[in-house]
Design brief:
Layout lengths: L1 H17 L4 H12 L13 H14 L9 H6 L9 H4 L17 H13 L22 H15 L4 H5 L2 E7 L4 E2 L1 H14 L2 E6 L4 E4 L6 E13 L6 E16 L2 E12 L2
Parallel strand pairs: 1-7
Antiparallel strand pairs: 1-2, 3-5, 4-5, 5-6, 6-7
Length: 268
Amino acid sequence: MMRAIVYLCLVLIGSAVSLRADEKVRQVQEELRKRNLYFGNVDGQESLELTDALKRYQRRKGFEVTGAVDNETAASLHIESAVISEKQQNLPDTPVLRSDTARALPEPQRTILEKQAEENPDLASGPPPPAEAPAPGQNLTPERVTKFVADYLRDAEKEDVPAQIKYYAFPIEYFDHGTVDKHFVVQDTSDYVKRWPERKYTLIEPVRFFASGNENETTVEFTIAFELRSPNRTKKYAASGRTKNWWTLHPEGDELKIIAIREQRLRE
């Protein structure tokens, strides 16, 4: 009887540990995705696709081609070597952010990105650079933009998918998926709500906004804290952290609409 109890405890402990993602692997996935070398889930799990992406990067950089994250590769990818916080160690082995899911790109577009990455493995995409203040004709104030962001975050905590996507104009530049239609966003939002039924978002810094460089478009930048729970799954996940977010807004009549959206996980 005692042996059975001990065995059961070991199984449960093993299961709990298996839910944790490897933070170093997650960082590698993020960095290779920025360089258009990796297109899979950002989930902290080793995979053949990740190994192949590492090999392509190492080959182009002239490193030893191992498919493993050795010191030379880690330094080149700017992988953080500092002590990883408890929160980061406990991130689950599943996509956490909306942008963590595998990139769904049309094959011609993916081929172009892969070719560019092969030619320049150091070329990493980043957030849009700040520009000048919005034009007066856009009738944007800090209060209006902040309320728009706050309303979005409150609706993002609901199960109501239409309430979440009403802020978008279609087609939209959607995270790392390129330009997508309404059907894609509805499906992606539905999947995310199922993966993380309980979501809490808190705006932790003032919203900043700038002209995007295109007429009647404004870039919005803000930081949030998130708390996610999935209590009703066979595997009970939980995750928390912070993200920096960038939107491009366009007025439609008296309303604002998001025409481009990006996010980046911040580390402690």
